[in-house]
Prior knowledge:
The structure holds two protein chains of two kinds. Chain A is an alpha+beta fold. In chain A, about 50% of the residues lie in helices and about 10% in strands. In chain A, strands 3-4-7-5-6 form a five-stranded mixed β-sheet. In chain A, helix 5 (about 95-100) runs antiparallel to helix 6 (about 105-115). Chain B is built from ten helices and ten strands. The model of chain B is unreliable at about 140-145 (pLDDT under 50). In chain B, strand 5 and strand 6 (about 225-230) form a beta hairpin. Chain B is α+β, with helices and mostly antiparallel strands.
Amino acid sequence: MIEVNTHNPTWLEVDHKYLPLHYQVMQLLDLMMSTGLSQHKLLRGSGLFYEDLQRADIRLSPAQIRVLIQNAIRLLPNNEISFRWGSRFWPGFAGASSQALAAAVNLNEALQLLQQFRYWLSPMLIPKVYMDDDYCYIQWLDTFGLEKAEREFMVNTQMAALVSLIESAIPDARQHLLFCFSAQRPDIVAPYQVYLGDTSYFGMDLDLVAVKKEWLFTPWPAGSERLSQLAAKQAEQECESFAQQSFVEGVYDYLWNRQAGKTAVCLEQTAEYFAISSATFKRKLKKHHLSFQQLHDRVRLNQSLYLMHVRGWTNERIADYLHFGDVANFRRAFKRWTGRTPSDSRSGLPVKSFFVAATQAAARVTSNRTTHTRHKLV
Amino acid sequence: MTHYLLMHRKKFFFIFSLALLLLLASALLGTPKMLADVDWVDVLGEGGSALAIAAWMMMILGSRPAGRVTNLLTLGLGFMFLAMWQDSLDEFFHLSSSQVWESWVESAAMPLGIGLLTYGLWHWHQEQLVIRSQLLKREQCFRDHLWLDGLQQLGRVDQLQVSLKEHWHDQTYAQTLVMAELPGFAKFERTHGYQEADRLLRESAELLMLNLRANDLICRYARDRLVILLPHTQPADAMKLAQELRQAIAAFSFKLFGSGQTQPQSLTIGVAVRQGKDNPAELIERAHQAVRLAAAGNGCSLAS
Lengths: 378, 304
């Protein structure tokens, strides 16, 4: 008996023109123009024209935004433009959802809004938020098939955006945040130091921000519960005529939840769940530069990292849960995905060691103001 | 380029109306030659030269602000162009020897043009020397516009790294490195907007540059942070210079656009001193830690 998804018949896809130009993209264009680039160069290939920038009714597809990001990478290499964009990303101009975000009473509420309105506030990389007893983890997930360089650019933007949002409420909040980048350490770390602080780790298995859980509820002085709830209601109305989820995220979530099932999941079954033929299903994924196998691997990697680091499961239990048959198979697959073994990953993710060290360092500074011990970073 | 060309439209109008006038005069006062009599090699040589000179004139005007040097260069090239133009018109029209103006245009315009151009180039040379001395602090021995940062017109941190690597064997050259930032810049950006923040960065960078010595190298690090290499400088002198820079920024009354309201600024500075086994990246990292300490402390710190 195959269940069929009937809740959400339509999906956001990479070529759907749904995102108003002025929400985030106009800021990127403004930044690029302020460096003296000519408009036709920065708009090249995007299907946008200079006249369009004056119009209020222009909506862009994620594919068009990808082209603009490619142009930014090509025309301003080695530049900090991704961070500069990020520092003005939120609350931003995404209608009522931005207003709700501006009135958030604490980080916890802000993260809920960012998740609920992710396709409006954070369309290119959506946040997936996980919690364990002590920490909150925000993972940036690409659901529109970004290429490596584009994803790295957007990760910088989202990280800077989060820091800028939190620091507009609480100065120097960055010392409570930890950043993991899947990208390798770049030659020039200057923008990471200046925009994010000293706690960036590179060459990790995923793009992630970690924060202590208790810190989610530190009140934000400018927040107003009533305002943000009203704005959130209005934002719900604003986007109700659009699909609420991207196709790739829909499949991602389905696969994530299906792992708990008794048998391994396959393509035909998934296509049937989405009520489309296998051929259409494959074609839709291909449009996002993905195959079923790639997406399935990505889900299993992220899920094993989650189970390993957040839930603290053993390799045996994970291998069993993800239908690997035995631990050796799981280890081999994990090595193929990340280039390291599960045990390397266990000791490699610096979250817990970092927060322990930071707490100790903070204690030292308070007890003796003249000692300036600092955790070795980046 | 178009912006500059529009600014100089009167000069163009003047030169090209003269050219048109010469064409009319030759056509009205002279008699057209038979096509068989036209020496096409001459036409190609003289006409081609005239066109080339006109193109040079456009290029110079397209890249220069108005001023005496520009006027001299334009007039020089303009007269040379008119002389060549008349020369090539001669190939098509026969003018009797009673037309004195024609020989005047042909023989006097060229030396006059060359004279003006030479005089103009001499002034241009002087101008370049001044500009060169102004640019010296920003670029030292580099002249590669790819290094330049679009925001502040300074070199980027890559330039500093190259410069450090090149001189690393010289212990005293790369002895002290200064890193500076504007505390509260992020708040300024949120309160007053990004355009004003960008202008603040540009103007404070200019101000710091005025307070540096001729061979100091100033580069943009990221956002509001600058890094300054002080060649052959003792830590004590670097601290003194750092204090001077802080005073300069403290005395800087940045005016907001529109309201004209003054926004006082301050500067946080960290000075790093090179240690025996450091490499360039470690010296930069040391400066980064110094500026963080300075931000937490009294605004100026020395890390050795």
